[in-house]
């Protein structure tokens, strides 16, 4: 019998650590080669960690939510033959080199499913009391007392009555009397503290709540948003764009599609406009490595498409948009967003964007202040299209209008350049023929 | 009155302890109220239940005491020149006098609260259309709110229909001549109370109970002193036995072993329970949801029909007068616009047996409870009133940890009067330390409450 240490492999360029998002084994489990041991999340992709060997799990390292350094032991196995590590004198004691501070290695032997202490049913969770005829089984001539138990609030009748009149659930009022009895003064204090219902119509304050551990994608999003906002001095810019013409064009193309042309949304047109405008503003299509003080300006346009998935926001990347036709863009967006939603997007499909588009679609309001997808320097957020009266010369006509919100890294992009870029975009969108001039789209 | 239509705010159907209390409270609150009752105000409780039975039980006690003094050539130094005799008709007249006084009192209270009382049977065509057949002709009532307080009726056994020598508690409380032998079917609290009273009056009583023991709903420890009394006074007891029909020799019964025989019984008292009075007055026309045999109500006693309320026995267990009264008072206040609900922590229950049993709250303690029990044998007042040797005790059940008192029981002579104290302690959320810190008057039975709490705390003084 040998001991085999399964270490977190190098799962992507530049990845130094990963977050454990799910355990599929626990100590004692018999596993075969290629069985899934755990899911870890790197950057934005979730990767299955499969076992390279047959064996029995003797230890797992790190709870769900823990960060583990590449090279740190994830799972310890007992295997036939020699294994890859010396047998341990003390099971459970780690022989691993110290991992980076954020990594969870060492002594932390964690069950795959952390045991949750059984919760006592609190009065707040108890079923609502029903009035008299309870206890069928005891329903014989004689008496049946109303059961008294933990669901009962511990207060005198006058206190209970007053609380009920005021619409205050006594379960939420802390009792300071002996044994936790709720005293009239406790009720007074509760009311004075603002816990009281606003109206006697049965409105009652809700208190309590729950602590939700932020793990996985949500934690990733949280970290990245914080990073972006902490590091990047954002400048926001909003401009109104008349999309009447481009919408008419879109409608026409959808009404009479070319063979193999998917249904077109506004997004492919916007991306084509971006591709058209960006060569004049190269500093906008870039990634800023502020540690090195280097701006990596990109020749190709790799557009991040902010996508809502069941787990949260993900940003798959449309690569080389400059080389794709409208129809190709539409198809690629459909494919990428489906992969993101289904969690099958590959790592390379989730990284490397040079500029990002984020849109709430029909939900979108009149303006947003999008957060830049670090380390990019710009993000574009089209808002909802609305029809409204627009003065054109002497006439007022109904036009389809949309605001474009945008944020720029002010360290790289000045307000003037930001405005100029969006104005260029506006011109292209309002005169869609310009988008297609000189290319084969 | 005939041809009249009344449109009161509140119509109360039934003048028992639920209905009349609801009507009085509604009247006090300024609601125009009509109460319909075919019999006398007071209902079962006052006219053929609680009050008359307690009167008879008292008379039986006195007769038993004096008989004993006469038979033993004196008791406590008291001698009677001749054995007492019983004029049951006179006893009943005395009892009726009490009922009259109380019923008249209720009538006066209703009048003072400006409640219109209609004597007759109510009948509903729909939830808000009622006709009362009075002696003066029908009266139509179209109320805004209806409070159903129709109470309950004794359950009849198919093999022993009421009538002739087969009595319900109502007829038993109106006997004017004592039978020599009485078979009581059902050893619940009504059967035991009346059976023991008749035994004290000199009747040879046999109890027939289908369950394994008497008062099957009570904790066995509490019922043991009653069982002891029955044995000591030659009350025949047939447990796990089924009552058959009436035969020439008395009551046919079948024992658990399958033996069938007749027990002598001039009269047979059937007390196998009570059923809600839901038939014959149009409940089915009112679109009211039922909960089994009972009218379904919520914690405000609201039925499924808007502005129709139901209180008391017709809404379910426990079928106790004080529960009905509390509900009646509450519903009147809700109709008057107050925000109320029925939320007692515990409802007390008393058996006026020999000895008496009183129980409030948790009776059967488990591992979450701490229990203290104190015998009346060690209580001076109990000994001084011959209440110390009946095996009686007070028991306190409290939550472990908090010490919050969740149950209080007692068995013993005169313990019914401890009930209010028990309820107060539980409803007010008293803890064992609270009771330990109260000064209890000496010499009283209540000292046993103090001691039982001390016992639960681990330091009783007198035991």
From TrEMBL, chain A:
Its cofactor is (R)-lipoate. This is Dihydrolipoamide acetyltransferase component of pyruvate dehydrogenase complex. It holds the Pfam family Biotin_lipoyl. Residues 3-78 form the Lipoyl-binding domain. Keywords: Acyltransferase, Lipoyl, Transferase. Forms a 24-polypeptide structural core with octahedral symmetry. Residues 154-191 form the Peripheral subunit-binding (PSBD) domain. The keyword Transcription regulation does not apply. InterPro entries: 2-oxoA_DH_lipoyl-BS (IPR003016), 2-oxoacid_DH_actylTfrase (IPR001078), 2-oxoacid_DH_E2_comp (IPR050743), Biotin_lipoyl (IPR000089), CAT-like_dom_sf (IPR023213), E3-bd_dom_sf (IPR036625), PSBD (IPR004167), Single_hybrid_motif (IPR011053). Residues 83-143 are annotated as: Disordered. Gene3D superfamilies: 2.40.50.100, Chloramphenicol acetyltransferase-like domain, E3-binding domain. The keyword Protease does not apply. Belongs to the 2-oxoacid dehydrogenase family. GO terms for molecular function: dihydrolipoamide branched chain acyltransferase activity. PANTHER family: DIHYDROLIPOAMIDE ACETYLTRANSFERASE COMPONENT OF PYRUVATE DEHYDROGENASE COMPLEX, LIPOAMIDE ACYLTRANSFERASE COMPONENT OF BRANCHED-CHAIN ALPHA-KETO ACID DEHYDROGENASE COMPLEX, MITOCHONDRIAL. Its EC number is 2.3.1.-.
Automatic annotation (TrEMBL), chain B:
One of its GO terms (molecular function) is dihydrolipoyl dehydrogenase (NADH) activity. It holds the Pfam family Pyr_redox_2. Its cofactor is FAD. Residues 347-452 form the Pyridine nucleotide-disulphide oxidoreductase dimerisation domain. It comes from the Bacteria. It catalyses: N(6)-[(R)-dihydrolipoyl]-L-lysyl-[protein] + NAD(+) = N(6)-[(R)-lipoyl]-L-lysyl-[protein] + NADH + H(+). Binds 1 FAD per subunit. The active site is a redox-active disulfide bond. This is Dihydrolipoyl dehydrogenase. It comes from Sphingobium lignivorans.
